[in-house]
Amino acid sequence: MTHRALLLEGIHADADAVLQAVGVEVVHETGALAESDLDAALDGVHILGVRSKSRLSPALLDRHPDLLAIGCFCIGTDQLDLRDAANRGLAVFNAPFSNTRSVAELTIAEIVALHRRLGDRSRELHEGIWRKSASGAHEVRGRTLGIVGYGHIGSQISVLAEAFGMRVIYHDIVPKLALGNAQPAGSLKSLLAESDVVTLHVPDEPSTRGMIGAAEIAMMKPGAMMINNARGSVVDLEALAAALKDGRLDGAAVDVYPSEPKRNDDPFATPLAGLPNVVLTPHIGGSTEEAQAAIARDAASKLARYLTEGSTRSSVSVPEVDLPTPAPDRHRILHFHRNVPGVLGRMHTLLAEIDANITAEYLQSDPEVSYVILDVESIAVEQIGDRMRSIPETIRMRTLS
Ligand code: NAI
Question: How far apart are CA 60 and CA 38, in angstroms?
Answer without folding.
Answer: 8
